[in-house]
Amino acid sequence: MQQKYLPLVTRLGIIYAVLAVAFVAQTVLSYSNGQRLKAVYQSQIQAARGLDDLTQALYALRLKVFQYLGTSKPAEMDAIKTEAAALSAAIAKQLQYGALGELAPLFAKAQAQYDSIIKEHGDFKTKQAYQAIYGDSQATFEQSKTSITGLSGRARAQAEAAEQSAFNTILGVTIGAAVLVAAALGFLVYYSKRAIVSPLNRLSVYAAKVSQGEMEAPIDGVYQAELHILKESLSQMVVNLRDQISLAARDEEKARLCADEAIAARSQSEGLKIQAERSFDRMKDAAGQLEQMADTLASASQELSHQIEESAQGANMQKSRASEAFDAITQLSQVSLEVSQKASTSAQLAERTRTEADKGSQVVDSVVEIILQVHAKAQANKNDMAELGKQAQAISTIIDVINDIADQTNLLALNAAIEAARAGEAGRGFAVVADEVRKLAERTMNATKEVSQAIGNVQDATRRNLAYAEETNSAIANSVERANQSGDALKTIVGLIDETAGQVQSIAAAAEEQSATTDHIMEALRHVSSIAEETARCMDESSAAVSDLALTSSRLSELIMEMREQESAEEIAPTPALARSAPLGRLALPPRLPSPVGGTRAQPLRAQPGQRREYS
C-alpha cells in the first residue's frame, strides 16, 4: 500500500511559514526589549536628575541660611524664601512621581529645621540658631546625603540590571532566530535536493534511456507525492509502449507471412495460366488435376482470408493499444505541467518570504535608530553631568572666597580685640563684640570646610555618574553593533532565500524539460499509431486481394466445368463439328495479376460481370 505524503507545495509552505514566524517573533521581541530598555533608562535618568535637583536645592538653601546668619540682610531672607520654595516644589514633584522613598521624611525634616533656624535668628536667638544648624541640621544633612548616595547607587544598579537583562534577551532572541532560520534553510535545501531535484534527475536519466531504446531499464530511488504519480505513469507508459511495439512486431511478421503466401499463390496461378496457354492441347488430360488445384486454391484462399482477418483484428488491437498509450502519455504530460506550475508557485512563495525578510530587516534598522536616539540622550545626560561638575567647581571657588573673607574677618576681630584692650574699661563692650565676630568667623571657616567637603563629595558623585554614563554609552554602542549584526544576518537570510528561489526555478525548468521529453514520446507514439493504421489498411487490401483470388478460383472451376462439357460434346459430335466449335481462346479465363516489383504492393484486379479476355 502506497504511503500518503503531503504535496510539495504544502511542505514548502510550512517551511516558509516557520521562517516567517521566526522573523516576526525575533523582530517583535527585539523591538519590545528596545522600548523597555528605553523606558527604564528614561525613568532612571529622571530619578537621577530629580535627586540632583533636590541636592542642589538643599545645598543652596543651606548656603543661603549661612549667609543670612552672617549678614542678617533682608535680601538674604528673600533668597532663603526663594530657595525654600524651590526645595518644596522639587520635593512635591518627586513625591508626585514616587521617586523619593525614604528621603521624603528627611527632606521635610531638613526644611522644618531651616524654618526653625530662621525663626530663632529672627527672634535674636543667634546662638540657638548656630547650635541648631551645626547640630540637628548638620546630622539631618549628613543623613540625607548618605541616603541620596545609597538611592543613586540602587538606581544605577537597577538601570544596569535592566540594561543587561534587555541586552541578554535581545542577544538570545537574535541567536535563537538565526540558528532556527539557518536550520530551516539547511533543511529546505537538503529536502529540495533529496525530494525534488534528485528524483527529477533520475526520471530524466530514465526517460533518456527509454528514448535510446532501453525499454527494460529500471527506475531507481524512492518517490513521494506528485513525483510518485509521475514515476508510476512513466513506468506504465513504458510498459504499454513495450507491449505495443511487441504486438506491432508480431503483426508485421504475420502480415509478411500472409503476403508471401499471397505472392506464392499468385505466382502459382500465373504459372498455371502460362501452362494452360502453352499446353492447351493437353488441357483434357490436365483438367482433373486443374480441378484439384482449383479446390486446393479455394481452400488456401479461405485459410488465407481467415489469417488476414486475424491480422486485421491484431492491427486494430494495436491501433487501440497505441491510442491508450497516447492517452497515458497525455496524462503524464499533464502531470509534468502540474509539477511545473507547482514549482512556479513555490518560487512565488520564496519571493514572498524574501519580502517578509526585507520587512524584518527594516524593523531591525528602526530598532537601531531608536537605540541611537537613546545613545544621543545618554550623551546629553553625560554633558549635563559634566556641566554639573563645572558648577560644583565654581561653588568651590566661591567657598574659597568665603574662606578668605572669614580669614580677613578673623584678623579684623583680633585687631579690634587688641584695640579694645588698649582702650581699657571703655572698650570692654567692643571687645565682647570683637570676640563674637571672631567666633562667627571661625564658625564660618568651619562651615565652609564642610561645604567644601560636601561639594567634593558632589564632584566625586558627578565623576562616578560620568563614568557610569560612559559605560552606558559603551553598552548602547554594543547594542547598536549587535542590532547591526542582526540586520546583516537578516540580509544573509534574504540571500539564502534568493538562492532557494533559484533552486525552485531550476526545478521548474527540469519539469518543463520533462514535459518536452514527454512530447517527444507522444510524437513517437503517433508514429507507431500511424504504422498500425497503415498495417490495418494493408490488411484490408490483402483481404480484398484474397477475395479476388477466391473469385479467380471460382472462375477457374467454372472454366474446368465448361471444358468438361465441351469434351463431352466433342465425343458425341463428328470431327467437323469440332472445327466449328467456339474457340477456346474466347473462354472466360481470369486476367493476369501483376507481380510486385520494387516492394510495390500488387493491386488486385476484379473481374467485371460478363467480361472475357482473349489470350494470345
Automatic annotation (TrEMBL):
Sections of the chain in a coiled coil: 283-310
Pfam family, one: MCPsignal
The keyword Repeat appears for this protein: no
Top-rank taxon, per record: Bacteria
Region entry Disordered, spans: 586-616
TM annotation in the entry: 12-31, 166-191
Domain HAMP positions: 194-246
Gene Ontology molecular function: transmembrane signaling receptor activity
Keyword Coiled coil applies: yes
Methyl-accepting transducer domain location: 293-529
InterPro entries: Chemotax_Me-accpt_rcpt, HAMP_dom, MCPsignal_dom
Database matches in Gene3D superfamilies: 6.10.340.10, Methyl-accepting chemotaxis protein
GO BP of this protein: chemotaxis; signal transduction
GO cellular component: membrane
UniProt similarity note: Belongs to the methyl-accepting chemotaxis (MCP) protein family.
Protein name, per record: HAMP domain-containing protein
Species, as recorded: Solidesulfovibrio aerotolerans
